Amino acid sequence: METHSEIQKLMTMLKAGTSAALTVEEAARQLESAGFEELAFQNTWCLSLGGKYFMKHHNTTLFAFTVGENLDFRQGFRIGAAHTDYPCLRIKPNPDIRTAGYHQLNVEVYGGPILNTWLDRPLSISGRVAARSEDVLHPNVHLVNMERPLMVIPNLAIHLNKEVNKGVELNRQTDMLPIVGTLLSAKEKEVPGEFPKEANGKEEEKGFRQFLAEELKVSPDDILDYELWITCLEQPQLVGLEGELLVSPRLDNLTSVQALLSGIINGSRDKGFNLIALFDHEEVGSRSKQGAGSLMLLNVLEKVCESAGRGGPSVKEILYDSLFLSVDVAQGTHPNYLNKMDVTSRPVLNGGLCIKEACSQSYATDCEAVAVVEQICLDRNIPYQKFVNRSDLPGGGTLGAIATSVIPVPAIDIGVPLLAMHSAVETMGVRDQLAITDLVTAFFSL
Predict the structure, then answer these.
(1) How far apart are CA 406 and CA 409, in angstroms?
(2) Looking at residue 316, what is its pLDDT?
(3) Which of 205, 27, 21 is nearest to 129 (CA)?
(4) Torsion, CA 7, CA 437, CA 326, CA 33, rounded to 10
(5) For the whole prediction, is pTM greater than 0.70?
(6) Distance of CA 207 to the CA centre of its chain
(7) What does the alpha-carbon distance between residue 99 and residue 185 come to, in Å, rounded to a whole number?
(8) Which residues, 6+ apart, have CB-to-CB distance to 423 below 8 Å?
(9) Which residue of 125, 172, 260, 431 has the fewest CB atoms within a 10 Å radius of its CB?
(10) Helix (H) / strand (E) containing 320
């Protein structure tokens, strides 16, 4: 069976977007291929009617927007937002640990991953490294995607942990340290950050910084700092008797990133502004200069208006006549755990995109905004479902409520349903990705 072009695009994004910085690079590649021009926020923008533009923000967040060919400022903005980060493990500074003949790396947990899904898998490294440069204020930044197995976090054998199948709580500091190799000397001292030496003082084992320098072809002394993430090497695969499921790392939230990219590229709206925001740091609360809780979205919206000829008080009028899509994944109904879902709202994989609602406003949706999305779906035969949490089992939130507290416009939380959300490998239905892409494209065409 031939794979739909949108699923092929998603699989390309899933392979490329192994960290927030690499996701932004893949997004920029797609936008440039579609004729979008890159801008820098600190420069003056000269926008054209019918123009298509994007900008990176600290290299892990990206904004892209289009200016209508027949621009009418009263038509406002259509805004879509998703996030570029995902729950995983991050390598700490000075990470080398040697003990009992093994070389391990010290890591910290980022976000809320299902820890045991990271065990017994080949793992790699992705992210960025800042190195010494001639301009102190602008270090040389190297993007890193090693794409080969470099480490593993082994389980303890069942013979030594006979209760393992009854459930084991993993300690984030001691149980999640990956092994990257073994030591040649059996006489090493258990001192983190040091390696065994021969009698002549020569190191038998190189440390992580030396390994990193060789990968980047720079001097170890030139490496100043890094943001490096441990990544799961599983590749996206179609699963099922008819290939109707997609199993992959990072479905949360690259499904949404790809839907927004396809939507803004293919959207046909010509009287207003379309804009997508791909934020970093959603998994840790969005409270950063790259996150949805910053003023960056508002700053970009204001600069777009001013650069298109409308500044001052009229910017607020334009913003208040806008609409916001918060695009993030939803919990799908697990057939083995039906009691974990709401008794009447049980979205299933391949049943369509989810409209997410919560009276707590952890999802930003209200009924009028829901009606907008429902009518788009009904008019275009786009399958959709509604998602709410069990009243006694509150779920997570999204960046929608955070971003719209800064720009108070009507918002709708939508996403594809997943199984095993926050696992190292998640599961989705391929037809749901087509549905959400169709919805976003229609949203950017109205």
Answers:
(1) 9
(2) 81
(3) 21
(4) 70
(5) yes
(6) 30
(7) 11
(8) 113, 114, 117
(9) 172
(10) helix 314-320
| Type and span of the H or E element at 184 | none
CA–CA dist 366, 357 (Å, integer): 7
Amino acid at residue number 218: V
pLDDT, tens digit (0-9, with 9 covering 90-100), for 144-202: 999 999 999 999 999 999 999 999 899 999 999 999 999 865 454 445 544 444 333 34
Q: Contact at 8 Å (CB) between 389 and 420?
A: no
**Residues listed for the chain:** 446
Dig out the tokens for 303 from the structure.
């600069």
Q: Could you tell me if 251 and 331 are in contact, meaning their C-beta atoms sit under 8 angstroms apart?
A: no
Q: Which amino acid is at 330?
A: A
Count Cβ atoms within 10 A of the Cβ of residue 226 and give its class: 0-12 exposed, 13-18 middle, 19 or more buried.
buried
Q: Are 280 and 23 in contact (CB under 8 A)?
A: no
pLDDT one-digit tens code per residue, 358-376: 888 888 888 898 999 999 9
Q: What burial class does residue 249 get, using C-beta atoms within 10 Å of its C-beta: 0-12 exposed, 13-18 middle, 19+ buried? A: buried
CB-based burial, 62-76: b 16+ in 10 Å, e otherwise: bbbbbbbeebebebb
